[in-house]
Amino acid sequence: MSAALDVLAGKLGGLSPRYGIVLGSGLGSLVGQLTDAHRIPYHDLPGFPVSAVSGHAGEVVAGSLGGVPVVMLSGRVHFYEKGDASAMRLPIEVLKGLGIETLILTNSAGSLRNDMPPGSVMQITDHINYSGMNPLIGEESDRRFVGMTSAYDASLADKMRKAAATIGIALSQGVYMWFSGPSFETPAEIRMARILGADAVGMSTVPEVIIARMLGLRVAAASVITNYGAGMTGGELSHDETKDMAPIGGARLAAILKEMIAGEREQ
């Protein structure tokens, strides 16, 4: 971790970011709103994992968003790529080493609710780890026993809701269920997820929440809804649909996050 941290810190020109943001599909518009941006490819950072998933850029982008210094991970590595739930541990540890105290996680997800259509945004209030995997398996210290009762920080959640209201963008709230992927869920699995209390399903984010909480970071998270769950419309799901729909909700989520972070300027 120290080698990647040293390289990254050396390229940021003294920037001390307050927020870290992991960008899922469709959040490229948020990167474009940074001022004085520094771009560092993951390839240049020792040990950083590089995703092979289309739509994930694979670079660190740091700068000022709404007057607040932030650092973004543009692209993530998923569990399904190599079967490693801890794939994002080193990048998150590096962000922690840069001094961030808050991590905002974003993803694209499938909706289980008719009132939450593709293109909408859902604030994650809790999650269900249906995959059964955990990024802390193999951790030898007692840090592995992470409490998850308040995994999603209530104060940050309130700020996100207020930011959405201020700019007039609808923001749903709900529970995110993590499936391992890479295949999409079956209609039967979607029916099960709804019975268990999930509002959206996806293939990421939960491992990063667990890692962040182990590191003592405050966490907020949101999903860009790209499709309805399998069996809800009769059509087949595809990654192309995700990539096509993600920018629509992504622009809305980007606006919410910019407003939310800009509100921290004087704090």
From TrEMBL:
Q: In which pathway does it act?
A: Purine metabolism; purine nucleoside salvage
* Organism of this sequence: Rhizobium favelukesii
The task this protein performs is described as: The purine nucleoside phosphorylases catalyze the phosphorolytic breakdown of the N-glycosidic bond in the beta-(deoxy)ribonucleoside molecules, with the formation of the corresponding free purine bases and pentose-1-phosphate.
Spell out the subunit comment.
Answer: Homotrimer.
Q: Which domain of life is it from?
A: Bacteria
Q: Which InterPro entries match?
A: Nucleoside_phosphorylase_d, Nucleoside_phosphorylase_sf, PUNP, Purine_phosphorylase
EC number, as in UniProt: 2.4.2.1
Q: What is this protein called?
A: Purine nucleoside phosphorylase
**Any single GO CC term annotated in Swiss-Prot or TrEMBL for this entry:** cytoplasm
- Domain spans labelled Nucleoside phosphorylase: 18-262
Q: Which NCBIfam families match?
A: PNPH-PUNA-XAPA, PRK08202.1, PUNP
GO MF assignments: purine-nucleoside phosphorylase activity
For this UniProt record, give its keywords in alphabetical order, as a comma-separated list.
Answer: Glycosyltransferase, Transferase
Q: Note the Gene3D superfamilies from the entry.
A: Nucleoside phosphorylase domain (3.40.50.1580)
**Protein family membership:** Belongs to the PNP/MTAP phosphorylase family.
Does Transferase appear among the keywords? yes
Q: Quick one: a GO biological-process term for this protein? A: nucleoside metabolic process
